[in-house]
Amino acid sequence: MKRRLVGGSLLCLTVAAGLLATPVARAQDAAWEIGEPAPEFTLPDTYGEGHALADYRGEWVVLEWLNYECPYVGKHYNSGNMQGLQREYGEKGVVWLAIVSSAPGKQGYHEPDEMNSISNAKNSAAKAVLLDPEGNVGHLYSAQTTPQMIVIDPDGVLLYNGAIDDRPTARLSDIEGATNYLAAALDEAMSGREVSTPTSQPYGCSVKYAR
User: Fold this and answer.
1) Of all residues in the chain, what percent carry a pLDDT higher than 70?
2) Which fold has domain 30-206?
3) Nearest to 156 by CA among 32, 66, 48
C-alpha cells in the first residue's frame, strides 16, 4: 500500500468517487445471486486512480468491505489474519480490493492521505483501497457489514458472498480454529471445484452508509 499520493484534495477525490461509481443499476440493497455476473463498477482508490471491475476480467477478484474502526475488522487486522490472506492469495494472482463505503463524517471514513497512513501502519497487502463515500457500490452488492467478503471468478461471475469465517465475534482468540469461508471458497474455486459454502451470514459492524 506504500505508494506516492498522486490524488488531489479530499473534495476532488470525493467528487471523483461519485463520478466514477458506475453500477449498472442503482439498486438499493439489490440481491445478486451466486452464479450470476458480478455487477460492474468503477471506483477511485486513495491515490486517485480509477479501478473498474472490468479491468480485472480474466483474474480472480476479492472484494473486502472495510472500516478500520470496526472491532470486527480490527480482529482480523490486529491479528494479521486479513493481511496474511491478502498476501497469500495475492501471490497466487488474486486481485484484492478493499472498499470503504462509509460516508464522510461517519465511522470508517478518512481522507485519502489518512487512509493511506492507516493502511501502511497496518501493513495492508490489498491491491488498493477504493472509496465509495456515496455507498453506490456497497448498496449494489448489498454489503451489510464490515468485514464482508465477495469472490468473483475470472469470467466475472459471483462465487461467494458473506462472512470471512464462522466465528461471529470480535475476539482475536476466535480466529484460531475458525472455518475460513473466504479461503475455502478461493481454494475450491481456483482448483476447479464447486464452492461448498457459496453464501454465509456476514457479521461485523453495519456499513456506515450516507443513506
Assistant:
1) 85
2) Glutaredoxin (3.40.30)
3) 32
